[in-house]
Specification:
heterodimer, A: 256 residues, B: 313 residues, alpha/beta, Rossmann fold, Alpha-Beta Plaits, 2 domains, 6-stranded mixed β-sheet, 27% strand
Chain lengths: 256, 313
């Protein structure tokens, strides 16, 4: 399976468009939003300066892009083209394909997080304690697995022309409503009460509480955990529907 | 059905199907199929589109499960045979991972095989060495088929399964590919390939299985099948005084398999057109606009089916 993971990573690193959108674009967006703000501007109701707030938002956004955009469309495409079937004729275990996809997404999402941090620290003087940097990186990276599972689920749910619009709606919906682009505190009340339950909101909120040095909000970890279970469960169910179980011995009942 | 009764001991057969049936939404794609493949054979699975060839191969490779009956590969389940590295396969719909090079893809296939060959050798044998640095999505149809073949032969498998391997190739590419396939057989491997070209079966296979509507219609050498499929279609017009054509003497013509009379026009299928036409003149009738034409493979299958059914009656 390692060789498939290696090849998936090689391929992802070769795709310039994908690298731009998942690795460079979040940092560029960060500079665009936080560029003119000085480090004393606070984001209302968060207790964080604008650059600090957006650093987590954009790192989360970049990780989301890396794990969601690449996989869903690729899985749908490769299911259709028959590559997934061809792989089933190798010694690769059934789950190997999905695991390789997830692993390669995780490899791309790490630089997209770290580059936002480096840009924020270098250009906008964001300063955190060493433990905060470490935990922040780890939490955002690990949290991206929730959305990697969602990407796999969409890849097995949608096919053909439908996969791109569905991915886009989910991606922009989760990014915007979850407050990755604009703080949810700027939303009308009714929208805020929806946004507070989205996994992307919990994802960014978790990072922001680390920046504040606070304990996470009571609902954030459960929301992420439940989302992960839902998405991974959905992905597993759709995967099994797509891939009939391999007969262990000779199929059916042999004649006597 | 010449060799259908041949039953080898399950341990010596490479592939054994026992009354395998697979139905999709009421259509029997594979209908009570029983067959045995022996070590070292090169076998063509011949049939028109929709005959059940791909379904048969999917069942053989464990991509589909039979509704009833048993599929054994080297005496066990298909998946065991694949995990054991005993089967290499190329699917008709076997898409490739794109944005990687041919060399990288073949290396992956070698890495995934328990008894791998060296990637450079695999590339050379499939005739794609010069494409090693080419991106997979920049290949022509024929080149793609060769890369698929490379994936199927990445390791020392005992059975090579190829589903319509020459699709998308022109005549000369097809013939070059046949030589590549023969090499595999010459190394003692069992080769099973699906095709709808009788010519292809004739060129490579030492045994041909004819599949039609999910059933095994014929099993024999290419020459035997060619003789069976060599049926011809005879058409002519007959004039008669009362406008009615008497079918009885026509039906009694030798080598006739089907008879269709509509108005003045008579259409006959025959396994020996020369003899049938000779006997036709012997009836004392005067056929006009006589035409004799070869049947396409698909019609030949229908002719064989009709002949088989007539025999059973």
């Amino acid at each position: 399976m390692n060789s498939l993971i290696k090849l998936e990573i090689t391929r992802a690193l070769r795709n310039r468009k994908f690298l731009f959108f998942s690795v460079i674009y979040p940092s560029a967006l960060f500079l665009l939003i936080a560029g003119s703000a000085d480090s004393t501007t606070e984001v209302d109701g968060t207790g964080l300066s604008l650059p600090t707030f957006y650093m987590v938002s954009m790192a989360s956004f970049g990780a989301l892009t890396a794990v969601l955009m690449g996989n869903s469309e690729r899985i749908a495409k490769e299911r259709e083209s028959g590559w997934v079937r061809q792989l089933r004729l190798t010694t690769l275990p059934g789950r190997g394909y999905v695991l390789a996809k997830t692993a390669s997404a995780a490899v791309i999402s790490l630089p997209s997080i770290v580059i936002v941090f480096i840009v924020a620290a270098a250009v906008k003087d964001v300063r955190l304690d060493a433990w905060q940097w470490a935990v922040l990186t780890l939490v955002i990276w690990a949290g991206s697995l929730v959305f990697a599972a969602l990407g796999v689920a969409i890849g097995y749910l949608a096919s053909g022309d439908a996969v791109r619009p569905i991915t886009m709606i989910v991606y922009f919906g989760l990014s915007m409503l979850g407050g990755l682009w604009l703080p949810t505190t700027t939303f009308p009340d009714w929208l805020q009460s929806i946004a507070n339950w989205l996994p992307t909101h919990a994802y960014a909120a978790l990072g922001q509480s680390i920046e504040l040095g606070d304990a996470p909000h009571a609902q954030d970890i459960p929301i992420l955990a439940v989302s992960f279970v839902l998405f991974a469960g959905g992905a597993a169910w759709l995967y099994r529907k797509d891939t009939p179980p391999v007969p262990e011995g000779p199929g059916g009942t042999p004649k006597a | 059905m010449d060799r259908m009764t041949t039953t080898a001991a399950p341990t010596t057969s490479v592939v054994a199907f026992e009354s395998v049936t697979k139905t999709y939404g009421g259509v029997r794609a594979v209908d009570g199929l029983t067959l045995d493949l022996h070590p070292g054979e090169t076998v063509a699975l011949l049939g028109p589109n929709g005959a059940g060839k791909s379904t048969t191969l999917d069942l053989l490779l464990g991509l589909k499960r039979p509704d009833s009956g048993a599929v054994r590969v080297f005496g066990g389940g298909p998946r065991e045979a694949i995990v054991g590295g005993r089967v290499g396969a190329m699917l008709q719909s076997g898409g490739l991972m794109d944005e990687v090079t041919v060399g990288e893809l073949v290396r992956l296939a070698c890495d995934l095989h328990p008894k791998p060959f060296r990637p450079t050798d695999v590339l050379a044998r499939a005739g794609v060495s010069q494409l090693a640095d080419r991106k997979v999505n920049k290949l022509s149809g024929g080149q793609e088929q060769r890369v698929r073949f490379a994936l199927a032969t990445a390791g020392d498998s005992d059975l090579i399964v190829l589903d319509e391997p020459t699709t998308g190739m022109d005549v000369s590419a097809r013939q070059a590919f046949w030589a590549t396939m023969r090499e595999q057989a010459d190394q003692g491997r069992t080769v099973l390939f699906a095709t709808h070209y009788l010519e292809e079966a004739d060129a490579i296979a030492d045994r041909v299985l004819v599949l039609h509507r999910g059933r095994l219609l014929a099993d024999g050498t290419a020459a035997e099948i060619k003789a069976k499929a060599g049926a011809r279609r005879i058409a002519f017009d007959l004039e008669s005084a009362d406008g009615e054509i008497d079918e009885a003497p026509l039906r009694a013509l030798p080598f006739l398999t089907t008879l269709d009379v509509s108005g003045h026009t008579v259409r006959i299928q025959s396994t020996d057109a020369d003899a049938t036409v000779h006997a036709l003149y012997g009836l004392g009738v005067y056929p006009r606009n006589l035409e004799v034409a070869g049947l396409g493979l698909e019609q030949a299958f229908v002719a064989i089916t009709a002949a088989e059914e007539a025999k059973q009656r």
